[in-house]
Amino acid sequence: MLSVLIDTLDDEEGLARTLACLVGGAVEGVVREVIVRDNGSGDGTLAVAEHAGCHVVTGGLAAAVGAARSDWLLVLEPGARLESGWTDEVAAYIARSTMPARFSRASGSRAPFLSRLMARPTALAQGLLIPKRRAMASKAADAEALARGLAMKTLRAGIWPAPVRRGR
Asked: Of all helices (H) and strands (E), which one includes residue 73?
């Protein structure tokens, strides 16, 4: 079982897209809960989270991680979408490993070459699968900092990264 953590700020549309791709994982019993850490949204982000049955946390990252009931966390950016079949890959990985992992980029999600040269991808662009105890030990202030600099395995399951937003 897995707790999903999504760090948000004014991204109701992105949150809705990400939550939609998690439904299959919840039905299959892989996703135990979704925790939305809100950083002061002024749009409908909180309404989307509450209508979807998410646990909303407004404190720091440590509070969000501490609220998780599962031994593993799946940390995603709002707007990221996991490809179908991700649940089998994640379940198999957490059964045999203790190391953090990330998803493979979906084959159609690659930006053109010059765009890739000019853009700096976020540390969470490919998601983060991490044991809760390791996340608790981190002094990271936000989900992006939690993912930065970690040695990770890459899963065969694909992810469509969140679209780049202005101000990120």
From this structure: strand 72-76
- Integer Cα distance of 36 and 56 in angstroms: 5
Residue 97 has φ and ψ, to the nearest 5°, of -135, 160
- Bridge partners (DSSP) listed for residue 37: 7, 57
pLDDT digits (tens, 9 = 90+) for 101-137: 999 998 876 665 666 566 667 899 999 999 999 999 9
Those residues whose C-beta lies under 8 Å from the C-beta of residue 95, and which sit 6 or more positions away, are none
Residues 6 or more apart from 68 whose CB is under 8 A from it?
3, 5, 33, 35, 132
Tell me the C-alpha distance between 30 and 85, whole Å: 12
The CA distances from residue 57 to 41, 45, 119, 151, in Å, are 12, 12, 30, 27
Tokens for 151, please give them.
């040695």
What is the separation of C-alpha 163 from the centre of its chain, rounded to a whole number of angstroms?
14
